[in-house]
C-alpha cells in the first residue's frame, strides 16, 4: 500500500511542501473554490510558515483566474479570519495553514459565508469542481485588495465580552507561547488589553517552529520553565493557526488540553450563561460532570469543528468545543478560538482569587490516552466492527466510528476518512484502568 | 477547437488568449519547467499592464520560488527594461508576462536566459520537454526561493543611453515631441525620459489604467491620433509604441507616419561609421539595405523574430539588429529590442543633421509595401505552406523563413506567424500595381 502525503478532503487540501503540495495543485484548488464561490471578495490569511508566500501567490492567481477578488489579510489566526468573514459578509475565505502539523506541511482551509467551515455536502460540490477541472475562468480578472487590520474585529469582540476591570484588579502574570505562529504578532498586546502582565516566549520562528506546534503537554517544557522562572500565574500555549489552546498552572504543570476546555466551560456556565454544552465524542468525561453540576444538558457531536458548531446551533448551546483544546464561545463566534479561551481562563483566575492549580484540583481526575495506529482503510473498518462485538455490553454509539461507554471508562475508535489511520482514545478513572483497556483493545486488533 | 483559442508555442515562450488558451495553471507549469531548467540562481520577473498580467505573474512567482529559485519582482515594467537590467545584475533567467503587439484578450509568458536574451531553439525545446514530462524541481520548505521587490535602475539606463548619443546636442535642440505609448507600461517612464533629453513632451494615451486606445502595434494605421496632434502642436516629431515598449514607429513634423519599417533604417544611419555589421530578417523592407549602404554597414538577413536576430548577431559579431516591425537592438546596450534606445538614436540623428524627419526620410526610395494577414487555422496554415512551396519551386525561392521570392521590381515573403494562427504575406515593390498583382496571385494559388 502506497500512501500519499497529499490529502484532498472536505477540510481542504494538505501536503508537504517540496513533495506533494505544488503550486499547480494550490492554483487548481483555489480556482475550484473561486468558481464555487462565484465571485466577490475572498479573504486570504496565512500562518507564519516559510512556505506561506509561495502558497499565497498561487492562491491569489487561482482566485483571480476565476473572477473573484483576493483580499489579503496577511498573517492572521484562523478564528480571526472566520470572524472577519462573518462580520464583513464575505462569500468565502481561505486560510493558508497546516494548523498543528509540523513546519514542512502546508494546507488550504476553506471558509464559507458566515465564517464556518464547509459542510460535507458543500465540500463535495467543491471537490466536484476540482476533480472535473471545470473552472469559470474569466478574461478580465479583478484586482487584489489588502486589509492588515483584520485582527481588531476579533479582538474588540472579546474585549467587549470580557470583564477587563476584574482581570485588571488581579493583574495576573501570564506567559504566552504562540509557537511563532499566526497569533505571534497580536497575542501579547491582546493579553495586555485584557489586563494581564505578559511575558512572551517562542514569539518568532527560528529555522522553523521553535517547538512542535501541537500544544500537547510534552511540547510545553519551555513554557513550564518560563512560568516558574517568571513566577507567573498561568501559561498559555497556542498552535500555529491559534485555534487550539493549552494552559500550564503556576507550578509549571500542564493541565492538558482536555482540562483547558473543561475549565473554560465551567467558568462560562458559572458566570456567563447557563446554556446547554456541546463537545465531540472524543472529549473527556469531565465536561459531563461539569454540565451535570451546573444543571445543563450536554450533547456529543461527531469530531470536527463544523460538527460541534452545527450541534451547538441546533441545541442552543453557547459554549462547547473539542477536547484537543478547541474552545468555542458562540457569543464571539461558533469556531475554535484560543483567544476566547484565554479571556475566560483569566477571568476565572481573577474572579475566584484562587491559584490555577487550585481551580484544576476542583475537578475529578480522569486519565486519557490518545493512540494512533496505521492500518489500511479496509482494516480500519474491520477493527471497528470487531471491537463493537467484543464490547457490546457497554453503551455503544456508532455515529462516528465506535464509542463505547462503561461507568469506569470509555473508549472511542475512529478510522480517519483521509488517512489510513485509526485513532484510539481511552479514558478511565485511573491510569492503570486506562492502560488495561487500551491493552485489551490492542489485543483484539492484533 | 477554434484555432484562435489554441496556445501558441515558440522559442520566445507561450502565448494565447486568456483564459481559453493561456491560464494560470499553464503559466505555472511553464514557469516550473523553466525554473527547473535554470536550476539555480535568481530569476527576474516583470509584467505589462494587461488586466490578466498580474494574475499570471503571481502564478509565475509562486512556481519559481517553489523550485527553490529566488525571484526578484520588478512589477510593471517594459520587457526591454528587464532585458537591460538583467545584463548588469547577476540573474540566471527572466520571465516577462506581456504579449507585446497582440490584441487584448491575449497574453504571453516570455522566457529570457542569462543576460536577458531570448532562448535559443535548443534551450526552448528543453524547457518544453521538462514541461511535458512534468518533471519539476521541488524545493523543501527550507529551500524555497525568496520573493524580493526589484526597482528598475532608471538612472543607469539613461546614463547608458546617453553614452550612445550626444546628449548636450539633443538637450540644446529642445525638441517638441508627441508620444503615444498606447496606455502601456512604458507610459510611466516617458516623463523621466523626456526630462533627461530636455524634450517638450506631449503625451497622449498615457494612462496605463485605461484600455488600449487602438491595437498595441506601432503600424501606420494606428498613427492617426499622433499625426493629428503633431500637426496641431507643430511638433518636431511623434512616435507610437507597442504594449511592452519594445517597438516604435515615428511620425514626421508634417504629421505623416513613416511606417514602422523606417525605424531600423533611421537607427542605422544614426549610427553611421560607428558600427560595421547589422542583422535583419528576410521579411524586412529594402529600405534597410539602402540605409545600410548610406551608413557603411554590412546587412545580414536571417529568420524572423527577436530570438533569431539576436542569436545571429552573436554568431556574426554584428553590433546591431532590427526588424521591420519597428524594432531595434544594439548589442553594446542590451539584448532586447528597445523603443527608448531607438528614440534616442533618432533624436541624435535629427540634432546632428539639423534636418527635419521628413527631410531625412526623403532620399529613401518610395517603395510600396503591403502586409497582409491571411486568416488560417492550426492545420490549414501548414497545408497552405506546403502547397505554396510546390507552386513557387521554380522561382529560386529563399527558404530562410517561409518562402521568399524575388522578382524584378518586387519581392514577397509568406510565412506562418509564430505568434498567431495566420499566414503573413509581405510584399514590397516599386509601385502599388506590382504589389497588388502579387497579392492576388498568391491568394489565388493558395486556393489551387
What keyword list fits this structure?
heterodimer; A: 446 residues; alpha/beta; Alpha-D-Glucose-1,6-Bisphosphate, Chain A, domain 3; TATA-Binding Protein; 3 domains; 8-stranded mixed β-sheet; 5-stranded mixed β-sheet; 15 helices; 39% helix; 24% strand; globular; B: 448 residues; 7-stranded mixed β-sheet; 4-stranded mixed β-sheet; 19 strands; 37% helix
Could you give a short description of this structure?
The complex is a heterodimer of chains A (446) and B (448). With 446 residues, chain A is an alpha/beta fold.
Write the layout of secondary structure elements.
The complex is a heterodimer of chains A (446) and B (448).
Chain A: E1 7-9, E2 12-16, H1 23-37, E3 41-46, H2 52-65, E4 69-75, H3 78-87, E5 92-96, E6 105-112, E7 116-117, H4 120-132, E8 145-146, H5 150-161, H6 164-170, E9 173-177, H7 187-193, E10 197-200, H8 221-230, E11 234-238, E12 245-248, H9 256-272, E13 277-280, H10 286-294, E14 298-301, H11 305-315, E15 319-322, E16 326-329, E17 333-336, H12 338-352, H13 356-361, E18 367-374, H14 377-390, E19 395-397, E20 402-405, E21 409-415, E22 421-428, H15 431-445
Parallel strand pairs in A: 3-4, 3-5, 4-8, 9-10, 9-11, 13-14, 13-15
Antiparallel strand pairs in A: 1-2, 2-6, 5-6, 6-7, 11-12, 15-16, 16-17, 18-22, 19-20, 20-21, 21-22
Helix pairs in contact in A: 1-2, 1-4, 3-5, 6-12, 9-10, 9-12
Chain B: E1 8-10, E2 13-17, H1 24-38, E3 42-47, H2 53-66, E4 70-76, H3 79-88, E5 93-97, E6 106-113, H4 121-133, E7 147-149, H5 154-162, H6 167-173, E8 176-180, H7 187-196, E9 200-203, H8 224-233, E10 237-241, E11 248-251, H9 263-270, E12 277-281, H10 287-295, E13 298-302, H11 306-316, E14 320-323, E15 327-330, H12 339-353, H13 357-361, E16 368-375, H14 378-391, E17 403-407, E18 410-416, E19 422-429, H15 432-447
Parallel strand pairs in B: 3-4, 3-5, 4-7, 8-9, 8-10, 12-13, 12-14
Antiparallel strand pairs in B: 1-2, 2-6, 5-6, 10-11, 14-15, 16-19, 17-18, 18-19
Helix pairs in contact in B: 1-2, 1-4, 6-12, 9-10, 9-12, 14-15
Amino acid at each position: 500500500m502506497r500512501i500519499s502525503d497529499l490529502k484532498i478532503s472536505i477540510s481542504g487540501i494538505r501536503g508537504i511542501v517540496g513533495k506533494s503540495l505544488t503550486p499547480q495543485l494550490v492554483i487548481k484548488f483555489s480556482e475550484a473554490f473561486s468558481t464555487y464561490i462565484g465571485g466577490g471578495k475572498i479573504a486570504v490569511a496565512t500562518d507564519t510558515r516559510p512556505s506561506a508566500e509561495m502558497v499565497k501567490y498561487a492562491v491569489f492567481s487561482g482566485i483571480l483566474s476565476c473572477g473573484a477578488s483576493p483580499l489579503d489579510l496577511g498573517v492572521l489566526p484562523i478564528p480571526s479570519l472566520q470572524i472577519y468573514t462573518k462580520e464583513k459578509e464575505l462569500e468565502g475565505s481561505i486560510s493558508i495553514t497546516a494548523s498543528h502539523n509540523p513546519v514542512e506541511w502546508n494546507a488550504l482551509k476553506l471558509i464559507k459565508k458566515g465564517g464556518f467551515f464547509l459542510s460535507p455536502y458543500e465540500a463535495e460540490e467543491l471537490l466536484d469542481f476540482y476533480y472535473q477541472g471545470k473552472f469559470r475562468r474569466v478574461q478580465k480578472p479583478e484586482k487584489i485588495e489588502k486589509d492588515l487590520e483584520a485582527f481588531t474585529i476579533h479582538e474588540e469582540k472579546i474585549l467587549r465580552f470580557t470583564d477587563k476591570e476584574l482581570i485588571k484588579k488581579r493583574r495576573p502574570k501570564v506567559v504566552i507561547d504562540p509557537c511563532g505562529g499566526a497569533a505571534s504578532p497580536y497575542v501579547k498586546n491582546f493579553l495586555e488589553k485584557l489586563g494581564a502582565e505578559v511575558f512572551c516566549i517562542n514569539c518568532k520562528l527560528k529555522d522553523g517552529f521553535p517547538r512542535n506546534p501541537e500544544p500537547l503537554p510534552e511540547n510545553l517544557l519551555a513554557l513550564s520553565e518560563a512560568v516558574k522562572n517568571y513566577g507567573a500565574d498561568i501559561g498559555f500555549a497556542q498552535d500555529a493557526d491559534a485555534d487550539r489552546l493549552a494552559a500550564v498552572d503556576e507550578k509549571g504543570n500542564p493541565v492538558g488540553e482536555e482540562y483547558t476546555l473543561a475549565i473554560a466551560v465551567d467558568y462560562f456556565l458559572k458566570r456567563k450563561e447557563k446554556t446547554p454544552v456541546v463537545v465531540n465524542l472524543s472529549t473527556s468525561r469531565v465536561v459531563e460532570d461539569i454540565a451535570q453540576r451546573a444543571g445543563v444538558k450536554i450533547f456529543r457531536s461527531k469530531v470536527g469543528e463544523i460538527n460541534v458548531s452545527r450541534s451547538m446551533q441546533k441545541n442552543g448551546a453557547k459554549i462547547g468545543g473539542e477536547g484537543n483544546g478547541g474552545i468555542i464561545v458562540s457569543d464571539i463566534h461558533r469556531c475554535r478560538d484560543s483567544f476566547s479561551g484565554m479571556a475566560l481562563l483569566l477571568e476565572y483566575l481573577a474572579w475566584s482569587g484562587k491559584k490555577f492549580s487550585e481551580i484544576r484540583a476542583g475537578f475529578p481526575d480522569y486519565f486519557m490516552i490518545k493512540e494512533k495506529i496505521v492500518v489500511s482503510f479496509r482494516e480500519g473498518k474491520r477493527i471497528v466492527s470487531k471491537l463493537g462485538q467484543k464490547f457490546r455490553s457497554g453503551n455503544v454509539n456508532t455515529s462516528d466510528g465506535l464509542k463505547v461507554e462503561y461507568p469506569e471508562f470509555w473508549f472511542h475508535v475512529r478510522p480517519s476518512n483521509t488517512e489510513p489511520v485509526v485513532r484510539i482514545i481511552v479514558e478511565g478513572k485511573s491510569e492503570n484502568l486506562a492502560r488495561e483497556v487500551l491493552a485489551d483493545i490492542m489485543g483484539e486488533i492484533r | 477547437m477554434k484555432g484562435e483559442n489554441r496556445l501558441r508555442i515558440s522559442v520566445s515562450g507561450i502565448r494565447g488568449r486568456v483564459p481559453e488558451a493561456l491560464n494560470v495553471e499553464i503559466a505555472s507549469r511553464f514557469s516550473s519547467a523553466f525554473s527547473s531548467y535554470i536550476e539555480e540562481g535568481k530569476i527576474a520577473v516583470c509584467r505589462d499592464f494587461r488586466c490578466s498580467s498580474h494574475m499570471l505573474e503571481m502564478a509565475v512567482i509562486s512556481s519559481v520560488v517553489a523550485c527553490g529559485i529566488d525571484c526578484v519582482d520588478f512589477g510593471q515594467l517594459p520587457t526591454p527594461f528587464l532585458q537591460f537590467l538583467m545584463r548588469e545584475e547577476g540573474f540566471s533567467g527572466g520571465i516577462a508576462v506581456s504579449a507585446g503587439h497582440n490584441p487584448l484578450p491575449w497574453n504571453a509568458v516570455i522566457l529570457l536566459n542569462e543576460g536577458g536574451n531570448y532562448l535559443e531553439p535548443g534551450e526552448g525545446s528543453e524547457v518544453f520537454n521538462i514541461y511535458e514530462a512534468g518533471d519539476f524541481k521541488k524545493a523543501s520548505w527550507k529551500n524555497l526561493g525568496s520573493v524580493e521587490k526589484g526597482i528598475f535602475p532608471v538612472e543607469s539606463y539613461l546614463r547608458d543611453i546617453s553614452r550612445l548619443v550626444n546628449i548636450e546636442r539633443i538637450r540644446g535642440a529642445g525638441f517638441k515631441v508627441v508620444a503615444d505609448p498606447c496606455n502601456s507600461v512604458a507610459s510611466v517612464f516617458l516623463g523621466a525620459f523626456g526630462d533627461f533629453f530636455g524634450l517638450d513632451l506631449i503625451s497622449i494615451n498615457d494612462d496605463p489604467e485605461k484600455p488600449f486606445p487602438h491595437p498595441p502595434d506601432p503600424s501606420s494605421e494606428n498613427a492617426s491620433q499622433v499625426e493629428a496632434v503633431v500637426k496641431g502642436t507643430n511638433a518636431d516629431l511623434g512616435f507610437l509604441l507597442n504594449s511592452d515598449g519594445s517597438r516604435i514607429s515615428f511620425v514626421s513634423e508634417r504629421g505623416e507616419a513613416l511606417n514602422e519599417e523606417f525605424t531600423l533604417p533611421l537607427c542605422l544611419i544614426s549610427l553611421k561609421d560607428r558600427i560595421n555589421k547589422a542583422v535583419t530578417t528576410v521579411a524586412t523592407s529594402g529600405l534597410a539595405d539602402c540605409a545600410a549602404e548610406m551608413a557603411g554597414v554590412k546587412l545580414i538577413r536571417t529568420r524572423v523574430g527577436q530570438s533569431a536576430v539576436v542569436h545571429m548577431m552573436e554568431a556574426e559579431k554584428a553590433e546591431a539588429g532590427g526588424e521591420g516591425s519597428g524594432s531595434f537592438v544594439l548589442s553594446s546596450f542590451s539584448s532586447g529590442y528597445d523603443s527608448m534606445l531607438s528614440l534616442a538614436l533618432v533624436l541624435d540623428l535629427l540634432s546632428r543633421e539639423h534636418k527635419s524627419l521628413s527631410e531625412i526620410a526623403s532620399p529613401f526610395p518610395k517603395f510600396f509595401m503591403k502586409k497582409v494577414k491571411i486568416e488560417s487555422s492550426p492545420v490549414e496554415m501548414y497545408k497552405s505552406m506546403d502547397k505554396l512551396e510546390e507552386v513557387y519551386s521554380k522561382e529560386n525561392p529563399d527558404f530562410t523563413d517561409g518562402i521568399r521570392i524575388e522578382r524584378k521590381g518586387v519581392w514577397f515573403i509568406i510565412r506562418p506567424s509564430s505568434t498567431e494562427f495566420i499566414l503573413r504575406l509581405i510584399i514590397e515593390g516599386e509601385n502599388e500595381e506590382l504589389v497588388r498583382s502579387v497579392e492576388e496571385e498568391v491568394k489565388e494559388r493558395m486556393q489551387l
